[in-house]
From TrEMBL:
Source organism phylogeny: Bacteria, Pseudomonadati, Pseudomonadota, Alphaproteobacteria, Rhodobacterales
Family matches, as InterPro entries: Acid_resist_chaperone_HdeD, DUF308_memb
Origin superkingdom: Bacteria
Keywords annotated in UniProt: Membrane, Transmembrane, Transmembrane helix
TM spans (from-to): 31-52, 59-77, 83-103, 115-133, 145-165
Protein name: HdeD family acid-resistance protein
Gene Ontology terms: cellular component: plasma membrane
Amino acid sequence: MKLSTAMIAVSVLLALGGVLALISPLLATLAATSVVGVFFLFAGALQAWVLFQNRFEDVAAALMALLCIVAGVWVLADPLRGATSLGMILGALFFVMGAVRVLMALQVKGSRARWLLMLSGTVTGLMGVLTIFDVGGLASQLLGILLGFTLLFEGAGLFAFGMALNRRGY
């Protein structure tokens, strides 16, 4: 199989995954949250195992291992609550990112990019506020929506790359 064909095939799968995630963002959020929970649990268990194997007595490392295990179990025990918590954290991050972008826009007086920075900051900050206050249950579906758009755009980018490879004979 040519490299370009493989890239185009993967791009179609990514885009399809993105569309499915956007059709059912709650299901995509629960799936993504469960994966995060498994990673937390695995990371904590691995850290604890390494600590015990090496008879390492670092309290901070032991607490970190325990925290990862607890976070993993907590997220896996109730993925919806875990998704909402992760969504709230993302909402706070979006709010801060939006505020910083608006402040950047205020500092670039006379620049053509000022209105774009202002718009970007306002929209990102508003997304943060909507998520933090869980308007329309957004926090529980945010990860799925972000996953859907990410997969869709990654698919589009990989498709363009595959087409460029194809034109070059790969």
